[in-house]
Design a protein that fits this description.
mainly alpha; Growth Hormone, Chain: A; 18 helices; globular; two-stranded antiparallel ribbon; single chain
């Protein structure tokens, strides 16, 4: 077997295959983006917003749990094995949506889709981090998330166009069958990255081991990790609202399915393309700044949608929303990989992704209840306000790590800091500052 090396250039073939596989993962979600809420209204005659959004609640809860166990099982079962298992769950999804005689079938399909997304996407994330090593994590996550969300955009647009031309079923879901088969076949060609993890561990400088990070450390107690986790939850909370309610909001304003599909596609398209820029920025700039401005922009855009009625303005706001999300999405994962010790990386990523994707379920429940009780505008205002509040939490709790090597800014945040060396609200303790400056 070839001796493993760390780096994007050294592993470009394996990395490129993982990018392609993740594009198929994203495409499976994009399939539902523009047409499933309309399918609920037109074919299943659901009226209550909370009932329509039930598929997102189930998807979010299932994906969140799958994310958590993907992180916990990664070292035990193997990255590649989890990836293949994830695609085995994904294979029946388009068939269930194609043949669904009742809304219960759609719910079942989204349970399987959540398992597919949690296991497959988590596996590709961890494997790319393994391959590139500590200096290019932001770039790796930018490429990974860009591929996934460009695929979301492409399939959202394609399924919206197919639904306009040929009806809501069956043609949009034929596309899903192709994606599922190609995703499974690509996953079978992937090689496991456990040897790269061992190499990084052997090359890492010896540092005093801090206390192990618990579930609640990653969730909230660790100032930087906790700030990242709450922002991830709120980000997907507002994404769940956009996924479920934006098509209904646009339909209430008289927009066509093609127009709705275009708006639904512009948002993840800018999100995906933007990460090609913001991913490398996460390697060089303070992650706190990228997260603060990204969340603030998202919140401002959602609030601006309250005062918008024209199609061109919705396209513009969708693009700005995508730009805000692009600032935060690769930064989330690069930050978790940075702040968590190497031996706890996969598990910490799993905990973060558990809470991040629980945001889909929380957002769908919250916005469905608000929309039923007070209207779509109230739901939009509440989620926009929560997103602005999340930005303020980042501004208050997070801080930038000291620069370890002035000659190489890319290494400025490359050294994880044990939770014990943090003083909440103040940054690193004096002992950490001293040890860092001497290193």
């Amino acid at each position: 077997m070839k001796t493993p090396q760390l780096g994007l250039r050294e592993n470009w073939r394996q990395f490129s295959l993982l990018v392609l596989v993740n594009a198929f993962v994203g495409g499976m979600v994009g399939l539902e983006r523009s047409i499933l809420p309309r399918l609920a209204e037109q074919e299943f005659h659901l009226v209550a917003r909370s009932a329509i959004l039930s598929f997102i609640v189930v998807f979010g809860l299932t994906k969140a749990v799958a994310n958590y166990y993907a992180g916990a099982w990664t070292n035990r079962i193997g990255r590649k094995n989890l990836l293949v298992i994830g695609w085995l769950f994904g294979l029946p999804v388009p068939l269930l949506l194609l043949w669904a005689p009742t809304w219960g079938w759609v719910i079942a399909a989204n349970v399987l889709l959540g398992l597919n997304q949690g296991l497959a996407w988590s596996s590709t994330v961890v494997m790319k981090i393994d391959l590139v090593g500590p200096k290019q994590r932001g770039l790796a996550m930018g490429l990974n998330e860009s591929a996934g969300y460009l695929a979301v955009a492409a399939t959202a647009f394609a399924s919206g166009w197919l639904a306009t031309e040929y009806g809501l079923r069956p043609y949009p879901f034929y596309l899903g069958i192709v994606l599922a088969v190609l995703g499974l076949l690509g996953s079978l060609l992937v090689r496991d990255t456990r040897h790269h993890v061992a190499l990084e561990a052997a090359q890492a400088p010896a540092t005093p081991a801090g206390p192990p990070l618990s579930f609640w450390d990653v969730t909230w107690r660790h100032p930087n990790l906790g700030s990242v986790t709450q922002a991830g939850l709120v980000n997907n909370l507002n994404d769940g609202m956009v996924w479920g309610l934006l098509p209904l909001l646009l339909a209430s304003k008289g927009f066509t399915l093609t127009q709705i599909g275009t708006v639904a596609a512009v948002y993840p398209a800018v999100w995906g393309l933007g990460q090609l820029l913001t991913g490398p920025l996460a390697d060089r700039l303070c992650k706190k700044d990228l997260l603060f401005w990204g969340m603030l922009l998202q919140g401002a855009v959602l609030l601006a949608m309250l005062f918008t009625d024209t199609y061109p303005m919705f396209v513009l706001l969708a693009a700005l929303l995508g730009a805000g999300t692009a600032l935060v999405y690769p930064t989330f994962l690069a930050a978790v990989a940075e702040y968590a010790p190497l031996t706890q990386r996969a598990h910490s990523v799993g905990i973060f992704r558990f809470w991040r994707d629980a945001g889909y379920a929380i957002g769908a429940l919250l916005t469905g209840i608000l929309a039923d009780a007070f209207g779509l505008g109230a739901a939009l205002a509440a989620i926009g306000g929560l997103t602005v509040l999340s930005a303020l939490v980042i501004q208050r709790r997070m801080y930038c790590l000291p620069v370890a090597d002035e000659a190489d800014p890319a290494r400025s945040c490359s050294r994880p800091v044990p939770a014990a060396n943090y003083e909440p609200g103040r940054g690193p303790s004096n002992s950490f500052r001293t040890s860092f400056s001497v290193a």
